[in-house]
Structures are given as C-alpha cells and as structure tokens.
Design goal:
2 domains, 8 helices, Nucleotidyltransferase, domain 5, alpha/beta, 256 residues
Length: 256
C-alpha cells in the first residue's frame, strides 16, 4: 500500500492507496508544536481503526509546505513505518514532469504543481486549478501541460477570522453551508452571505479575468477543503475533484 501525506498550513491530509485506488483518507489539523509521540499516537489510532499495520505500508510519499514539522514526519516514518520506502516531493522533484514557467520555479509550492500534474493527466487540456485551502490558489496549466503561473489570495477561513477578530461586535458564523438567500435578514445570515457569496464572486471574477488573458477557454477544476461548498455557489467551476492533490501524489510516486 501507498501512504500519501500532504502537509498544509491548516490541515494535513493522509491518503491510503491500494492498487492505485484511494481506499481511505483522513484530514487532521496541522500542529506545528506537536511532538513525534503525539503525531505517532494519532496516526496509529487511525491505522488501528482501519485494521492496518505498519507492515501494510510499502511506500510513503510526503509533500509539505510547513518546514517546521518536517522533522516530525521524518522521525515518524523512520521509526514506525520501517518497511516502507519514504520519498519527499518538492518543487524540484516534480518539475521534470511538468515544466514550470515561473520566473523563479523554486518559488512554486510542490502542492500546486502536484495539483496541475493530476488535473492535466485527467483532462489533457488547458486548465485553471483552484485550491481552496489556507490560501486560495489559482494555477494555470497550458494545453501542452506547462505550469504557466497563477494567483494567490487569502483563504476563506483566514478572511473570516480577520473579520471576527477585528469587528468585536460581530458574532462568529459557521461557514459549513451558504445561506438560502444572498440578502440576509439577520446578522449571522448576512455574515455567511457576505463571506461565502462574496468569495464566490471573487472566484468567478478571477476566472473571467484569467480566461480573457489566456484566450484558450481553460477548464476550471476545484479542489481543497472548502471546494465542495464553493462549487455549489460559483458559476465558473467545471469539475469538483476534492482529492486532486492525493491523486497527483500517487502519479508522482510511481516515478520514484
């Protein structure tokens, strides 16, 4: 089995593949101050719940944008997954698969290129890949499979936290679903509408501007933790693929 570990600023997503099929996945909080023991206890409990043993894992692939906890993952894999080969995916290791046309290719996070690789393998066309994570990233892929560039904006949760922490009289609103109407009749509904529908309008506006600039009508793919919500309230998203990063890690792992 292959264990794919995608370490993001807010969440760490762990995927388990068998025969190229995603059998299980878990989304846990990324804790920069966690110890190796704490991380090990958590992952071991997930394994036990799924009737897995360390010997079941033959290969581990890891992508991280949080250098502070990389040593924790390294210690965990070396001490617990002793029968597995471990590979770290970084921007250098994937640039041979997808040419990066950034001015400085080293600046592009591996997760963004991984998303592009997975999306291009599926669709073989020009693409805009939107990842709704801690930041919301727009990544543009050419019809030749080149990483052209993109845009980065504050994520939905970062934006909402800024509002809640600064405007002391506003209550916190749960953003698990959009309100039924754009025009809110109470404060909570108004906050939900402003954040979610406002963000959806930003996404549609950015996609429109990118398409005008590119002039090749790219297909728009959505992924990331909040993509399920955003796909329902935007007009520009063509495909919802919430496990795109894990699927890209599977593709890259087969080259090691």
């Amino acid at each position: 089995m292959l264990l794919a570990v995608d370490i993001g600023n807010t969440n760490t997503v762990i995927g388990l593949f068998k025969n190229r099929e995603l059998r299980r996945f878990w989304r846990i909080s990324t804790r920069k101050k966690a110890t190796v023991d704490e991380f090990s206890i958590l992952v071991k409990s997930l394994f036990t719940e799924s009737s897995l043993t360390p010997d079941d894992i033959k290969k581990v692939v890891i992508s991280s944008v949080v250098p502070e906890i990389d040593h924790i993952i390294s210690e965990f894999t070396s001490s617990y997954l002793t029968n597995a080969e471990t590979y770290w995916i970084n921007s250098e290791s994937v640039r041979d698969i997808m040419p990066v046309l950034y001015t400085n290719p080293a600046e592009v996070g591996a997760d963004r290129i991984i998303n592009g690789i997975a999306a291009y393998k599926k669709h073989k066309s020009s693409l805009i890949v939107i990842d709704f994570g801690t930041a919301t990233t727009f990544d543009v892929i050419s019809s030749k499979g080149e990483y052209i560039g993109g845009a980065i904006s504050p994520g939905i949760k970062i934006s909402s936290e800024a509002l809640f922490s600064t405007a002391s009289k506003l209550p916190r609103a749960e953003l698990s679903a959009p309100p039924e109407t754009v025009v809110g009749k109470d404060t909570i509904t108004s906050i939900k509408s402003g954040i979610l529908y406002g963000y959806a309008s930003m996404v549609d506006g950015m996609v429109s501007k990118i398409k005008k600039e590119r002039k090749d009508n790219p297909r728009v793919i959505a992924t990331g933790g909040l993509s399920v919500i955003m796909e329902k309230i935007t007009e520009s998203i063509d495909n919802l693929e919430p496990h795109l990063t894990l699927e890209g890690m599977l593709i890259v792992s087969e080259l090691f």
